[in-house]
Amino acid sequence: MIKVGVVGASGYTGLELIKMIIAHPKFRLTYLATTTGDTLIENIHPSLDGVITYSVESASINGVIKNCDLVFLALPHKASMGFAKDLIDRGVKVVDLSADYRLELETYEKFYCKHEDKKHLDSAVYGLIEYYRDELKRARLVAGPGCYPTATLLGVLPFIPYIDSSSPLFIDAKSGVSGAGKKLSETTHFVTINDNIFAYNPLKHRHAPEISEKIEKICGVKMSVNFVPHLIPATRGELVSIYATLKEDINPIEILKEHYANDRFIRVREKPVDIKSVAGTHFCDIFASKNGNGLFISSSIDNLLRGASSQALVAGNLMCGFDEAVGVPTITYMP
Question: Which residue has the higher pLDDT, 38 or 28?
Answer without folding.
Answer: 28
